[in-house]
Write a structure and sequence with these properties.
Length: 456
């Protein structure tokens, strides 16, 4: 007998690990290398298809808090990320190939996980296999079309969609450091970013070419359906001349350490690998044609002779209307999936409406632990909205608004438990309040974990 997990990304791999370390046999199904989505290229599990950054490491940010919660719960993804870091200021960024290799090795060497290459056309063909004890669908926003259609048919909901994009990667040795320089914003921390500065005339020329550049056709593309967190740079530029200067090209706090000069706009590049060979252009997700990327981005001072290891790409992402369909353990409620599904069915990852690498892994962790609870007839494991992990699960399952959209880690979705002696002055101080919320969340999580000796 085995738990079948469909999808070898962040959520699927985390769920597989949580089950395997608890002695449950797992069959992890991924369509690679038989078939690749438009954004996937590697044969490894847990492939990063967009940025190599997992956002802030500061525990007093929502993203940093989520990471610390997952470390506390024994996350595979965070363990491998911590072993494959590359410098990125206050963010946790990884060497994408090393990270994926570590995850793949950990799972394939576990003894309880069998990785199967297969294109799955429907939930029923997995759930009805004689050895299936439970099924977790973690195929992500790039779910193959046949399976997507089956999910829509079964859940009785129209699939929502938004568009996602990846930024280009350039080789460091092709960057012109007579113009580019290392510096950190406001001189804080290590100078982990390469900065390409522009004066007003250079920016104006670049802006004109960017908004008039030719874009690649993306089926069903609508600029109104673009997720704000991955807005293509040319779409952002179309909102106004100064939009980029308040976004990815913000010059505030950056000076050339060689001259002390300040600039009208600055493009930043972040290291993408441990060997310090590849850098991604921060915030430059794009759907420009490849030739146009080389031409227009070549106008950036320092990148005039840049060699691209990968051009930016854009693809359509889909997610289900999870509220009312999933509970806080990411299990499908009642008979929502159809009467022919007679085993526990879970969804995990971005297909549920969580947004981001670590958020996806978080849902996989919760789904995996709770699939174990179901099989062993144990009470469900729910951490509650006083934690970031629980708040994401609560948002996905219980969001009451009319416009359900992908959600990343943030304090706004939490129901924090603050100390009784927290005065009004502390509550008004945003930094101190975030610290209190994070401390409280970690205390709740540690106590919840301690109370569940049957799981940890």
């Amino acid at each position: 007998m085995a738990v079948y997990i469909v999808g070898g990304g962040f959520a699927g791999c985390e769920a597989a690990y949580q089950l395997s370390v608890r002695g449950i046999r797992v069959k992890l199904i991924d369509m690679k290398p038989i078939k690749f989505s438009p954004a996937h290229h590697s044969r490894l599990l847990c492939e990063l298809v967009c940025s190599n950054s997992f956002k802030s490491s500061d525990v007093n940010t929502a993203s940093g808090l989520l990471k610390e919660e997952m470390r506390t719960l024994g996350s595979l993804i965070l363990s491998c990320a911590d072993k494959s870091t590359v410098p990125a200021g206050g963010a946790l960024a990884v060497d994408r190939e090393l990270f994926s290799r570590l995850v793949t090795e950990k799972l394939t060497e576990s003894g309880n996980v069998e990785v199967v290459s297969e294109v799955v056309g429907g939930i029923g063909e997995i759930a009805c296999r004689p050895d299936a004890e439970a099924v977790i669908i973690a195929t992500g926003p790039l779910t193959d079309e046949a399976l997507s259609l089956d999910i829509i048919r079964r859940l009785g909901e129209d699939s929502l969609s938004f568009f996602d994009a990846a930024a280009p990667l350039v080789f460091k040795n092709s960057i012109n450091f007579e113009k580019a320089f290392y510096a950190s914003r406001y001189g804080k921390g290590d100078s982990d970013y390469i900065n390409c500065p522009m004066n007003e005339a250079e920016y104006a020329a670049f802006y004109k070419e960017l908004i008039n550049a030719e874009c690649a056709e993306v089926k069903d593309f609508d600029s109104g359906c673009v997720y704000e967190g991955c807005m293509p740079v040319e779409v952002m530029a179309g909102r106004g001349f100064d939009t980029l200067r308040y976004g990815p090209m913000k010059p505030v706090g950056i000076t050339d350490p060689r001259t002390g000069e300040r600039f009208f706009a600055v493009v930043q590049l972040r290291r993408d690998d441990v060997s310090d060979t590849l850098y991604n252009i921060v915030g430059f997700q794009t759907r420009l044609k490849f030739g146009e990327q080389k031409r227009v981005f070549g106008m950036i001072p320092g990148l005039e002779n840049a060699e691209f290891a990968r051009y930016g790409v854009m693809h359509k992402n889909t997610y289900i209307k999870s509220p009312g369909v999933l509970d806080q353990t990411f299990r499908v409620t009642g008979r929502s999936a159809g009467d022919d599904i007679n085993v526990p069915l879970y969804f995990a990852g971005q297909i549920t409406g969580v947004e981001g690498y670590i958020e996806s892994a978080s849902s996989g962790l919760i789904a995996g632990i709770n699939a174990y609870c179901t099989l062993k007839k144990l009470p469900p494991f729910v951490t509650g909205a006083g934690t970031q992990t629980g708040a994401l699960a609560a948002y996905v399952s219980n969001y009451g608004g009319a416009d359900f959209q992908p959600m990343g880690a943030n304090y706004g979705i939490m129901n924090p438990v603050l100390p009784e002696n927290a005065g009004k002055a502390i509550i008004r101080d945003k930094k101190r309040k975030k610290g209190l919320i994070s401390n409280s969340a970690l205390d709740i999580l540690k106590q919840t974990k301690a109370d569940r000796s049957d799981l940890f």
